[in-house]
Hints:
By secondary structure, this protein is α/β, with parallel strands linked by helices. It has helices at 20-28, 71-83, 102-112, 130-141, 160-169, 188-203, 242-249, 254-271, 291-296, and strands at residues 6-13, 46-51, 55-61, 89-94, 118-122, 148-151, 213-223, 229-239, 274-283.
Amino acid sequence: MKENFKSGFATLIGRPNVGKSTLMNRLIGQKIAITSNKPQTTRNRIQTVYTSEEGQIVFVDTPGIHKAKNRLGNYMVKVAQNTIGEVDVVLWLVEPTAYIGAGERHIIEQLKKTKTPVILVINKIDTVKKEEILLFIDAYRKELDFAEIVPVSALKGDNTQELIDCIMKYLPYGPAFYDEDTVTDQPERQIVAELIREKALRCLDEEIPHGIAVTIERMKYRKNAEHKTVADIEATIICEKESHKGIVIGKHGAMLKQIGSKARPEIEDMLGNKVNLQLWVKVRKDWRDSDLYMKNFGYDPKDSE
Length: 305
């Protein structure tokens, strides 16, 4: 690695559904964070790693900042807000619009308190006319003194290399935190659970996804008759109501089968071997307001303190 190698941390913040996870996956060139069109898909702080000859960026993807309605919501908001003061660069993702709503103004107030350089990232520019982008830049420029403003399309990859170059400007010189092959600090089991949750989010009705979690009960590797590695994975989808359990399972198990069949290929791609996936469904009433259940399902309230 070069003598003038840079390394540091960049957090992605923003309201739910602005494309933080999609952008992070695009920047590192691999799917780690799950995505869906439903708010609050990301619940934990997820770290991924981008390494080049110039330097290493450790991206911290955070839950969307929103008005919390339960203990899980409070946990998610605190996780997002706590990262702002712990990194070298803040990437604030916004929608391509000149209208700055209450949610954005709340984030602006948070950012005014930090000395960390803030890069405004206007995402989804593939959905608007090019000449409109200058209007959006002007609207936001009046609100905060940004280190940089970069319009991008996380979906199509437009301007993402320019964004990488901008981030590198604000990182300190120093050795890499991770070896160059590392793309995430997330354990395999955690990524598998999240991939299953993503497919459940995409398959299920509107009222259910907020109240589901996924736990991996068992994950073991074995050799099959052809001496190829197979991962036997047993996972449980947790929901909050008995009425939801029936919907998650579906008629004759059709919905559960659909979730499993959509999750399996992506888990196989991630692990690099065949997967035998078995899914169950359990009810844990109001688990999003229980510290014990939240901790059991991977959302430790202490992490947000």
